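User: Can you help me understand a structure? I only have the sequence.
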Amino acid sequence: MKYDVVIIGAGVSGSAIARELSRYQLKTLVIEKEEDVCCGTSKANSGIVHAGFDAENGSLMAKLNVEGNQMMPELSKELDFSFKQNGSLVLCFDEADRENLVALYDRGVKNGVKDLQILEKEEVKKLEPNVSDEVVAALYAPTGGIVCPFGMTIAFAENAYTNGVEFLFDTKVTDIQKQEDGWMICAGEKTFETTYVVNAAGVYADVFHNMVSEKKIHITPRRGDYCLLDKNTGNFVSHTIFQLPDKYGKGVLVSPTVHGNTLVGPTAIDIENKEGTNTTQEGLDQIREKSGRSVKNLPMNQVITSFAGLRAHEDGHEFIIGEVEDAKGFIDCAGMESPGLTSAPAVGKMVADIIVKQMQPEKNPTFCGTRKGILDPDTLTKEERAKLIKKQPAYGNIICRCELVTEGEIIDAVTRPLGAKSLDGVKRRTRAGMGRCQAGFCSPKTMEIIARERHIPLEEVTKSGGNSRLIQGINKDSL
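Assistant: Let's start by predicting it. Here is the structure, written out as C-alpha cells:
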C-alpha cells in the first residue's frame, strides 16, 4: 500500500499533525501500536495549557508553547473539547528567591506571554485563600489554562478521520527502510510504502530516529505520579498552582480539572522502562509532601485514584521537529515532553507546513474543520432533556452513577468515528468509570453495551485492548 504520509503514533502530536494534513489531498495513514488514540504520554499528564514563561528564550519549546496557547480557545470551540482559561500562579516562598521570580517574569515577557503580573502576598491570598501562608509573592499568568487531554486528542483524531485520514491500531512498527523514492515501513504483518514518515512515537521516537539516522538522539522516559481527588474538592483551588524552583526542586502542581476534580502531581523520576507507568509509594509520598508546601490543608484523604505517566525527555530538553538531515523524507516530532500538550496545535501546523511546502498538494475541497463531541444531557435545559429522552430513551438511562453518564452517551462513544472499543476507550470519551467508585459498579453494564453495539461476544470486551479481557469464559447454562 502506497501513502503520501505515514505518521507513527496516535498521541496528541500525531493526531494534531494528521488533522492539519487532512486539509490537503494527501493519502495519510496513522499507525498506532495500542488499541486507541491517546494511549501513551498524551493519556496521563497534567492537562495544563501552559502560558509559556518557563521555556528558554529562543527555544522551539518557547515558540510553539506560546503559539499553541494562543490557538487553544478557538480550537476548543471548533472541535468541541473541554478547555478553561483559569490562569496559573507560580509561588515564591522566600524573599531571597524574588529575583528568580522576576527572572521568570522577564523570560515570559520575552517569549511573548501576555498580561503577566507579579502579585504580592495579599493579592495572591485574595485569589487563592488556601495557598500556603509562607507565600511572599507569585507570578500570575492569566493566559494559563486547563484542558481534557483525552478529549483534545480524540477531537484531533476524529476530525482527521472524517476528513479522510486512515488509522491503523493494534499495529507495532518494527522496521523502517529507505527506498529510492521514499520509505518502506514494516508494521505487524504488513508493509507500507510512503513518501514521508512522521515520527511522533513519544518515548519510542528515539528508536525510530536511530533506525534511519547516523546522528543519534536519546529519550529518557520520565515518570510522573499523580493523585486525583474527588469532585467535592473541585473548588479548593481555582488556578493552577506551581512552585518556583528552589532548593526543594520544582515541586508539584495543584490544579482544578475541567471536570471539577483536583489534580495533584507530578513527580519527575527518570527510568529505563518505556512502559513503566506503575505508581510507587515513594512517588505518592513525594506528592503528599510537596503539594502541602503550596496549599494548606489539601484534602488528600479525598484521593479517588492515583496514576503515572511518562514524559519523553530528550537529553537537550528541547523539541526535535523537522526533516532529518541524513534521512530525506523522515520528519521527527520527538522530545515532546511538557509543554507538548499545549504546543500540539502549533506542532501539527509546523509539521504539516514542512510536508506541504515540499509536496505542493491541492487543498481538500471537502475539508470540514469542525467536529461535535458526545452530547452531555446535563448541558441541556429540563425541557430539552425531556425531549431528548422521549426521542432517544437511552439518554434517560444512567449507567455511571458517579459521573451521571447515560447509556446514550456510551452508545455514541462506541459508534462514532474512531469509536471506543474497550472500557478505557469509553472512559476517556465519556468519563464513565472515572468517578468515586472507579468503575466498580458501572463496568458490567458498560461492557454489555460495548458488546451489543460492536456485535461481539461479551468475553471479547477488554479493559484496554490486547489481552486485558475481564471475562475469560461464560457458562451459558448459568445464564
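Now, to help you interpret it: Residues 60-79 form the longest helix (20 residues). Residues 377-469 form a domain with the Arc Repressor Mutant, subunit A fold (CATH 1.10.10). Let me know which part you'd like to focus on.
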